[in-house]
Design brief:
The chain has 138 residues and is of the alpha+beta class. The chain has a single domain, classed as Alpha-D-Glucose-1,6-Bisphosphate, Chain A, domain 4 (2-Layer Sandwich), CATH 3.30.530. The chain is globular, with a radius of gyration of 14 Å. It has a seven-stranded antiparallel β-sheet with strand order 1-7-6-5-4-3-2. The protein starts with a strand and ends with a helix. Helices cover 29% and strands 42% of the residues. The longest helix is centred in the C-terminal third of the chain and has 24 residues, at 114-137. Helix 1 (13-21) crosses helix 2 (23-29) and helix 2 (23-29) crosses helix 3.
């Protein structure tokens, strides 16, 4: 099963792309709730390049490592990657006059329900949009 989520970000495409691909920015938005954070993010944004993000509960009770390999990069338009379990993810960036639509499609895993995965990934995407828009205002 493939799941697709999206968000509109009121910021220029260059700022949206930068926030998606900068480790310092990723650490600011890559968590599904305020109880979690992303203490580390490493990224080699090239086809064949690897990434590794660590998400943890702020109380230290649990954590998740997300790792994968980039398969396709089109500047300001598309990032495709394979997670370490071989599930595929595509992130599309579609610019309009006033915003950028970020659309993320991913292969669901089999442990959690599709709806739970959709909610979690969507929550992260909403945090991403808020992060970029807050930077754009300053």
């Amino acid at each position: 099963m493939q799941i697709t989520i999206e968000v509109n970000v009121s910021a220029p495409i260059e700022e949206v792309w930068s926030a998606w691909t900068s480790p310092a920015d990723i650490q600011q938005w890559n968590a599904a709730s305020e109880e979690w954070h992303c203490p580390s993010a490493e990224i080699d944004l090239n086809p064949g390049g690897k990434f590794s993000y660590r998400m943890e509960a702020k109380d230290g009770s649990m954590g998740i490592d997300l790792e994968g390999t980039f398969t396709k990069i089109v500047l300001n338009e598309l990032i495709e990657f394979a997670l370490e379990d071989q599930r595929l993810v595509a992130v599309e960036f579609a610019e309009s006059d006033e915003s950028v639509t970020v659309r993320e499609s991913f292969d669901a895993e089999s442990t959690n329900s599709g709806e739970l995965q959709r909610q979690g990934w969507q929550a992260i995407l909403v945090r991403f949009a808020r992060h970029v828009e807050a930077k754009n205002v300053s």
